[in-house]
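Appendix B, Record 12. Input sequence as logged:
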Amino acid sequence: MSARRDQVVVTGAGVLSPLGYARAPLFEGLLEGRSGLRPVEGFDTRGLALPRVGELNGDGPEQFLEGRSLRPLDRTGRLAAAAAELVLADSGFRAYYGSDEAESLPAGLVLGTMYGSVRTISEFDRRALTAGPQYTKPFDFANSVINAAAGQAAIWHGLAEINATVAGGTTAGLAALAHAADLLRIGRASALVAGGAEELCFESCWSFSRAGLLAREPEGPGAGTPFHAHRNGFLPGEGAALLMLETVTAARSRGAEILGHLTGSGSSFDPSRGQDGERSATAVRRAILAALKDAGREPADVDGLSTSASGSVAVDRAEALGIAAALGRHAAELPVTAVKGSLGEGLGASGAFQTLALLEAMSAGVLPGIRGLDEPEPELPFRLAGSSAHEGRFRCGLVTSLSWDGHACALVVEGPGEEARS
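Logged structural output:
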């Protein structure tokens, strides 16, 4: 017996980004080519050549979590819980089902993250090693597992359905959306909050630095700029972006506004873990073709791209070549955006930011350019890649993500007026 397939729609978004705390300021900032990168304030950067990061402003997620004790939630948990607060409001889901926090809501949560609560985990280990295990904090222990943020956010909001965490490198947020959409299509749920969250901290930045992934010349031309001819690594970022995904039947039954459709997804893996650019490109190609097949679409149907390029030399190139291999000559004519030029490398949160940017472009009829891309890499297979925004009617878009550890993911997104073919 084949599984039932229902259309999956997006009915709201919750955003905490370096450009703003709602989908409107995020999209406006991307369109205007503003930078969310600023000097680090949240942690000590001694030993790191890191003058700019995509850090949230001083207000942080706590402003959306008033009235209850925040002690059980660490930084990543607060990001996830705050984004969930915003998406439940933006979608009208909380208002429709009641605002009593003691009641459970008929929705679940699928959260993507690369490192989860890495700062908490590090602090727990440091305290245990230096002061002794008896001096560790119980709340730190509770948050030392990768699914802590998803669990804490669900507890905070009474999300009583499926609770899952996806940890797939920088593709985690996009993979979480894909997994949630699959669950909705086969009838395992009717509403799921999905996306990603990632904190910015010394521990992860130190690891990136030691691995040679951060921009080697952070103030030089092209640093942290996707597809730039002189790019030399990424600049890290943080944030959270969650989308309210519902079956079209459930969304229509409560009169929800439909922002767009998620119609297909695909994933693949490069066993060389990014060491072989050709194999990485092939993984991207496989993910895209699987997503298009899942959506019932052809390469020629795609009219806009939202890529995960971040300024990483090899990964940006492999992603571009994989897209070109999947879409053929059509790729050269497509408008393309890459939000990490404005937001930094947001790791597990990035895929949801990318998807939201494409959804907003479909509504506004304009796709943001790539901030700072004044000199694209020679032979880049995207003729229209640059800093200028692109006007047009975007009906079928493609979101792609490639992590330097080999994960590749693709998602087909269609506008609010489009009907899914699958």
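The chain has two domains: 8-253, 264-414.
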